């Protein structure tokens, strides 16, 4: 007598790091694929229907639809934030044509607050000479796609703070601040409100 039947086997078709929604942090995952096999004497012999694939967190063992890999990891978001805020610092420092010592100190303070790694005046000098201010919008668009409204407001607030670091703000600086808000896909009302709020906190006006 031949004993035959079916059995589901899972195999790993890929591995990597993803943001596990269950745990709220970066974890390793296995991309698993399930397939039904035809068995004889319990030995899988013929591959049958593919039952679909899924993502399994190797830490909490929760499983997710493969779409979960489309999200960015926490460290990717950190990298994007750091690069974007360095561009903001350089753009604001250069906006009025001069970089004074107070602006330099303020730029380092702001980048340190946002960045995931240490940042000092030497780093700022190398950014001032090497970063392309023209790349500001592209970097901020990427950041705007992952930040919520509060996060966008924080970035724009930091830009206005930098503009005011030398004790005054001018129109060219506020123009750069508005471009930053637009690149982050903030509404005009939200941009103006955020700018006014930070200016009045700093005791400055245009
Ligand atoms: Zn997990």
Note the run of SSEs as H and E. EEEEHHHHHHH
Named CATH architecture of the largest domain: Orthogonal Bundle
**Coarse shape:** elongated
The CATH class of the largest domain is identified as Mainly Alpha
The count of β-strands is 4
What is the CATH superfamily label of the largest domain? Answer: TerB-like
What is the count of helical runs?
A: 7
What's the main sheet like?
Answer: 4 strands, antiparallel
Task: Tell me the structural class.
Answer: alpha+beta
The residue ranges in which pLDDT falls below 50 over 5 or more consecutive positions are none
Q: What is the share of helical residues?
A: 40-55%
Bound molecules: zinc ion
The Cα radius of gyration reads 25 Å
Number of domains: 2
User: How are the strands of the biggest sheet laid out side by side?
Assistant: 1-2-3-4
CATH topology name of the largest domain: TerB-like
Arithmetic mean of pLDDT = 91
β-sheet strand percentage: 15-25%
Report how far the terminal alpha carbons are from each other: 92 Å
């Amino acid at each position: 007598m031949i004993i035959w039947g079916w059995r589901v086997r899972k195999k790993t078709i890929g591995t990597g790091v993803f943001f596990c929604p269950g745990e709220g942090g970066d974890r390793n995952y296995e991309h698993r694929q399930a397939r039904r096999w035809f068995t004889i004497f319990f030995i899988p012999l013929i591959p049958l229907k593919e039952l679909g694939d899924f993502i399994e967190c190797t830490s909490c063992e929760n499983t997710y639809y493969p779409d979960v890999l489309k999200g960015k990891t926490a460290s990717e978001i950190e990298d994007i934030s750091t690069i974007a805020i360095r561009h903001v610092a350089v753009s604001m420092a250069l906006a009025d044509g001069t970089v004074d010592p107070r602006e330099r100190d303020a730029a380092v303070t702001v980048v340190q607050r946002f960045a995931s790694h240490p940042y000092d005046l030497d780093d700022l000098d190398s950014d001032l000479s090497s970063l392309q201010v023209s790349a500001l919008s592209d970097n901020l668009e990427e950041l705007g796609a992952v930040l919520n409204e509060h996060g966008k407001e924080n970035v724009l607030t930091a830009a206005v703070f930098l503009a005011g670091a030398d004790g005054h703000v001018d129109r060219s600086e506020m123009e750069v601040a508005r471009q930053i808000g637009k690149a982050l896909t903030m509404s005009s009302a939200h941009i103006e409100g955020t700018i006014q709020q930070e200016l009045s906190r700093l005791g400055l006006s245009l």
